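hey can u check if this looks right to u? its 409 residues, i copy pasted from the old doc so theres a chance i mangled smth
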Amino acid sequence: MSSPFSRRQLFKGAAAVAGVAVGSRLAAGRGGNWLLGEARAQSLTTRPVLLNLYTFGGFPNIFGNAQPWLNNYFGVTASNTTQVNSKVLLDAAFAKCIPTAFHPNVGVVGYSTGSTSHTNSPIITYSFNNTQAVIALADAMGGSAALKCVTLGGSKIPGNNQAVGSTSNQMVTDLGALLAALGGVTDPTIPDRAIAASGMTTAQAISSGALSANPGGLSSLQQAFVSGINALQQPVPVFNYATVAQAYGVAATQTAVSNFAMQLIGAEVAIAAGANVVNIVPKGVSFGSMDDHGDNQMTSPRNAFTSAMAGPLTTFLARNLGRTDIQLVMTWQGDFWRTDTGTNHANCIGVPVIGNNVVAGNFAQVSASGPNLTGAPPPMALWSTLAGILKVPAAANPFSAPTYPALVG
């Protein structure tokens, strides 16, 4: 059989797929890494993009809806809060990260998982039809990018990473290969694109019998084949990493996703590569800093946010909310809110949604008796409302109609 690629090149392509297949990860290191490195996106137009933040341990009420506790609990006062619009009062440090022009585009989504368990609540939040809601959302948003849904930094988003179509949640722990894909660096170890695509297509054909016979056990390998081949067939964009790194005060030689600044730099890289949904579990924010039992002033989460998140998030939102090639939306959740009796576990949460096409509104109002959101809907309220804000086409939308249509612009 004649072929435009050598046996060595085919083996190299197969090794790349094998590296990707482990846990369906696209991570650092040669072998598995060059597949991600060759990811090419569609030419960017004005398209919606979601930045999704998740902090384990709990979600500080003050970053979602500070109003109920003003001059009452959690150390909330007029001096440490900001009224970003007529509906939403936020912790001042968080509000300062949001460009003033977008203060009218801040809303709050309230929902309840019905659980106060650190294990169960996040799984309930993210689970949708035996996969993660972020995967279903990224797939429904469409586009031709090979990597529609990514998680940056090594900590996984809760729930089952089951592919929807060709979309799965790919883990990225080093940006080196993505940068090679975007023209930011030149890597002589990366094979010729046409040869690599031919090699992977042939490898997929050779493996078709085994893939068909073992659809569950080899699903990660099949996902890697599909993503890799699609990636290699995309046009090559150009990306200036040095400029992005400089904006965050990071050396252009640094590519390991080792802190929150690098996670947000990675978000810019992933967006340039065509990602629809970028997930981040912020580095530098410990479980304990959010699971702050007895911390009635919320000193611990305030300190964690200020020290690890505020600076890089300010830079990211300033650089990306006003872009004309994308319409960025950001949301931030945790396991649950804290109660105002000992800062324990509530069974509900109110989370901010910020950015383009968001209309000011607050659907996390609480009673004077505590943080429980009486009659709050399940987490589908978040995902259905986000799908509306992100303009997911009705024919492709796997979620219900927006639970909070008043937040959708």
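The two ends are 57 Å apart (CA to CA).
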